[in-house]
């Protein structure tokens, strides 16, 4: 059956693949040589573009190409996802060993636009630096009374599930797969890592629902994964135990996994959250996390599947009076001693920071501490602690800093990782991500996963060019003005200097400086009349700083060498402490809160000036959200500044109003 480009429901934004982005491809004479399902996808995309812009597409097995402007050719000698692109004799040629590479080559040509058809250039090979580039959806099949339809989702409901059933909207799912493939994503998990009873059945009697999704993702080279509960044998009527060393349990998982692959032959594997925040795990049986992961790895191994075992394990019932227990230490303490004990097809999925996707925290010391274990680094595209897609907060610069960080002073995180994973920020909102500008985060993650060394600014330029083809210079400049520094703007009016949190409990939106200060979650700032911050030094604190390699342990150990932006993460400092930037701690807190609000005000004005340069509905949605962002930023400024003024008794040196 010929492949056709998915048709979006009326009113749904095409995100970064509007028809105009394909103009350069669609106006050319194109030849496609090769066969296979993904080659058919390439052909369908090219035919769709040519039907719009007057070009034409031929299929041929021969070698003659001189009559064509653009050629896609299957040619052996490349790795699975590699492609080469060059131009000679007036013909742009994309070659790859199979359809997956040709598909990525097609989107590369779309990004280049007219530049792909000018001049002469030798064939250049493009390959992903990271093999696994994955999105995890925290979607619930049934609406959870606390977590809702999508846990930490800020873009409406799930694309896959509604009212306990599969939505069955294949065209929208396939369009989503197209978006993901266009930025290099090759894997997706379709349900929440917090697996409830309804979701547990996706593994067995509801695997057909997952298979239907996998069919749509397969058309764009994306493998489907499933989050499973470690206690699945017990929950689903198997053995009365989930002990990973029990022969009956191992047999149950082997049989269940075999049935999964009967339905989804290219199934990617399992994602598991175990012994974390109430989820069951191997600790209940006196077993290690390696024991648990390896049991599932053994079930998946015959089929080439992988288990993603999340390292987000910590004591979430901490006594706030206990200064010796440090949540930041937990992942390293639990997992570093297990290095070398995980199976070859087990991937330890580690959050990029030691806490929980805060606007600023150091890179997790687990990354770089387990050289004999496959690691995937996890990011959060959904903006749980960064404005919940009601605030503009482009996270590309943050992610790039993490990926370029060198845990051992030699090798960057992006080169150490076997995979990069992000919690999805997409839903059934007409703009996919709730806030139209949050699309930039999804696109940027995919492109940085393909090339962790890419400049985030270059990636943002790509997204702007694809989303707004032929945009006037004023629109391009305006989009850069509101996005480029938005992460640091958000940081300026929220929690200072890496201390984190200070958010409303539960939903995590908006300020509450002491919201979690006396809770069991281990998210403390320890502010008192004399100072603020957590002493994580080896000399006098929790010892967390010593979990790093020597080169970083020495930097973080002392306030004199610790970077200012992490000063309160690593140290409890007096309000009069002079930061390396020259300001006192308390004055820095005051100044940056006021600066953050002023920057939001300026960005709102820039956005207002762009009216008439894009679709009115898109402009109006963002303008409305800017009003909420400004209201929230002012609230953050006033609550944080007033809190620390009342704690310290030190007035603002600039005499501004603090309540």
Describe the structure.
Residues 433-656 form the Glycosyl hydrolase family 67 C-terminal domain. By secondary structure, this protein is of the alpha/beta class. The protein folds into three domains: 19-126, 2-Layer Sandwich (Chitobiase, domain 2), CATH 3.30.379.10; 133-467, Glycosidases (TIM Barrel), CATH 3.20.20.80; 491-534 and 572-648, Alpha-d-glucuronidase, C-terminal Domain. It has helices spanning 23-26, 37-53, 99-112, 170-182, 197-200, 207-218, 232-235, 247-263, 289-300, 330-335, 396-404, 413-416, 439-450, 456-467, 473-483, 486-493, 550-557, 567-570, 585-609, 616-648, and strands spanning 29-33, 56-59, 70-74, 83-88, 91-96, 121-126, 132-136, 139-144, 148-150, 161-162, 165-166, 187-189, 223-227, 269-272, 306-310, 346-351, 374-380, 419-423, 531-532, 573-574. The strands form five sheets. It has an eight-stranded parallel β-barrel. A six-stranded mixed β-sheet has the order 2-1-3-5-4-6. Helix 10 links the parallel strand 15 (306-310) and strand 16 (346-351). The longest helix is centred in the last third of the chain and has 33 residues, at 616-648.
What's a concise summary of this model?
The protein is α/β, with parallel strands linked by helices and 659 residues long.
Oligomerization category of the chains in this entry: single chain
**What is the fold named in CATH at topology level of the largest domain?**
TIM Barrel
For the record, the CATH class of the largest domain is: Alpha Beta
Approximate strand percentage: 5-15%
| Form type | globular
What is the share of helical residues? Answer: 25-40%
State Rg: 25 Å
Note the main sheet: 8 strands, parallel, barrel
CATH superfamily of the largest domain: Glycosidases
Q: Which blocks of ≥5 consecutive residues have pLDDT under 50? A: none
Adjacency order of strands in the biggest sheet: 7-12-13-14-15-16-17-18
Average pLDDT score: 97
User: SS-based structural class?
Assistant: alpha/beta
Strand segment tally: 20
Q: Terminal Cα separation, in Å?
A: 68 Å
CATH-derived architecture of the largest domain: Alpha-Beta Barrel
How many helical stretches? 20
Tally of discrete structural domains = 3
Domain Glycosyl hydrolase family 67 C-terminal: 433-656
Protein name: Alpha-glucuronidase
Organism: Streptomyces broussonetiae
Pfam families: Glyco_hydro_67C (PF07477), Glyco_hydro_67M (PF07488)
């Amino acid at each position: 059956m010929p492949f056709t480009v998915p048709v979006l429901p009326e009113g749904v934004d095409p995100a970064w693949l509007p028809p105009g982005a394909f103009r350069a491809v669609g106006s050319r004479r194109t030849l496609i040589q090769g066969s296979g399902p993904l080659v058919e996808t390439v052909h369908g995309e090219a035919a769709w573009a040519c039907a719009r812009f007057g070009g034409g597409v031929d299929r041929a097995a021969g070698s003659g190409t001189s009559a064509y402007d653009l050629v896609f050719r299957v040619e052996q000698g490349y790795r699975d996802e590699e492609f080469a692109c060059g131009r000679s004799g007036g013909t742009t040629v994309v070659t790859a060993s199979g359809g997956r590479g040709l598909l990525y080559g097609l989107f590369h040509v779309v990004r280049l636009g007219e530049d792909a058809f000018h001049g002469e250039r030798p064939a250049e090979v493009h390959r992903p630096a990271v093999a696994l580039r994955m999105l995890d959806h925290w979607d619930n099949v049934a609406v959870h009374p606390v977590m809702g339809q999508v846990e930490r989702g800020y873009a409406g409901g799930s694309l896959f599930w509604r009212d306990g059933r599969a939505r069955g909207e294949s065209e929208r799912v396939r369009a989503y797969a197209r978006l993901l493939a266009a930025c290099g994503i090759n894997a997706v998990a379709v349900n929440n890592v917090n697996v409830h009873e309804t979701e547990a059945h996706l593994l067995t009697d509801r695997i057909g629902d997952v298979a239907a999704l996998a069919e749509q993702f397969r058309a764009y080279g994306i493998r489907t994964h499933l989050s499973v509960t470690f206690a699945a044998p017990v929950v689903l009527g198997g053995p009365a135990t989930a002990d990973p060393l029990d022969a009956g349990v191992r047999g149950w998982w082997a049989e269940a996994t075999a049935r999964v692959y009967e339905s989804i032959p290219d199934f990617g594997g399992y994602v598991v959250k175990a012994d974390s925040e109430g989820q069951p795990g191997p600790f209940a049986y006196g077993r290690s996390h390696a024991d648990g992961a390896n049991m599932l790895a053994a079930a998946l191994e015959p089929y080439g599947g992988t288990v993603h075992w999340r390292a987000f394990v910590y004591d979430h019932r901490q006594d706030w009076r206990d200064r010796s227990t440090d949540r930041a230490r937990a992942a390293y303490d639990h997992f570093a001693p297990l290095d070398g004990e995980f199976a070859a097809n087990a991937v330890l999925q580690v959050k990029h920071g030691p806490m929980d996707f805060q606007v600023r925290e150091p890179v997790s010391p687990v990354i770089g501490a387990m050289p004999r274990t496959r690691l995937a680094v996890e990011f959060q595209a959904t903006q749980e602690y960064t404005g919940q897609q009601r605030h503009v907060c482009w996270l590309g610069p943050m992610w790039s800093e993490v990926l370029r960080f060198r845990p051992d002073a030699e090798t960057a995180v992006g080169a150490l990782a076997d995979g990069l994973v992000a919690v999805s920020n997409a839903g059934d909102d007409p703009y996919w991500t709730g806030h139209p500008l949050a699309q930039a985060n999804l696109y940027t993650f995919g492109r940085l996963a393909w090339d962790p060394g890419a400049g985030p600014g270059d990636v943002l330029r790509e997204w702007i060019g694809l989303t707004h083809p032929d945009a006037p210079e004023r629109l391009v400049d305006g989009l850069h003005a509101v996005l480029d520094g938005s992460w640091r703007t958000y940081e300026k009016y929220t929690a200072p200097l890496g201390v984190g949190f200070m958010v409303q409990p539960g939903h995590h939106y908006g300020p509450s400086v002491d919201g979690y200060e006396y809770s069991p979650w281990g998210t403390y700032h320890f502010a008192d009349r004399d100072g603020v911050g957590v002493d994580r030094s080896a000399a006098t604190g929790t010892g967390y700083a010593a979990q790093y390699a020597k080169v970083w342990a020495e930097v973080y150990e002392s306030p004199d060498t610790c970077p200012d932006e992490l000063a309160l993460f690593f140290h409890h400092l007096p309000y009069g402490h002079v930061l390396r930037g020259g300001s006192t701690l308390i004055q820095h807190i005051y100044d940056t809160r006021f600066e953050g609000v002023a920057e939001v005000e300026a960005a709102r004005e820039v956005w207002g000036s762009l009216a008439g340069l894009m679709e009115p509905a898109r402009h109006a949605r963002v303008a409305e959200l800017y009003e909420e962002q400004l209201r929230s930023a002012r609230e953050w400024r006033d609550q944080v500044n007033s809190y620390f003024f009342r704690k310290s008794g030190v007035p603002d040196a600039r005499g501004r109003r603090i309540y």
